[in-house]
Amino acid sequence: MGGKSTATLGEIKNRADLIIFWGANPAECHPRHFTRYSLTPKGMYIPNGRKGRTMVLVDIRPTPSARAADIFLQIRPGKDFEALTALRALIKGHRVSQKSVEETGLSLEQLQDLVDRMKAARFGAMFFGMGLTMTRGKHMNSSAILTLGAEMNEFTHFVAMPLRGHGNVTGADAVMGWLTGFPFGIDYSRGYPRYSPGEFTTVDVLTRGDVDAVLVLGADPGATMPGPAIEHLSKVPTIVLDPKVSHTSRLARVHITTATTGISAPGTVYRMDEVPLELRPALQSPYPTDEEVLRRLQGAVAARLAQDSNRVANGLPYGPMLRLAKANRSEVTAV
Is-above-0.85 flag for pTM? Predict the structure, then answer.
């Protein structure tokens, strides 16, 4: 089974009577999530607000969000995939070994109680965070919880949604999705898009040292990625487009200051539920927009490729070979 079952935050606010947070701490990371969309607001079909909802939190340790939960399930680190697989089996009525479940840090009774609550819900919503997506299993964990949400629709209405950590990450996924059919982890080296999470995703190609140049647009991988990825980022030519100086900017060879989207540049961002929001700037900026910079870079690259093509046609050195020829003050023949 592929894809995911999802909804808008407004639908969740108005309909969801069971809320599950897995590997997420919205009380600190998304502080208005509880009050605006998921836990306390009164909805059209949840007129009693918080009293009409049950909240379950699954995490490796108690967090500030645990104080708001009705049920807290403390899972063993790195055992999310096993727990999700056991839940999927129980939902379908298969037998699950007590011993295998205990390896997750939970009991079979706890999982069965959660399954019963999920099936009894009129509308269930699961939100998962970086505790699930950035630990062992990563993409397999995400696939497991999205599949769980889709399979639950055999019994009741259920949705699964990631709690994104940075602004407009959903927008990047949405645009790549309708351009290529894939949300991320895409390779174009063969002239067409190939999708392979864990192989082509940014953190993996950086950690393996597979790239020799990096263009960073509106992100700060130097502050969030694992040490080996950051170390390689600092070794290769890196260009950063950002309204402010970031950790990645300090590692980069080039930093280009751009206008701030929504404040001094127009644009469209996607909310975490994939609802597009048009931004209208209130101020003017002396800096170019990200789009303007990218178009200039694209034009410069196209002109350079045309120049190199002409040099090749005339039997002259080009690109790196031209620079080598100048350095050695000797003629280099292009082959």
Answer: no
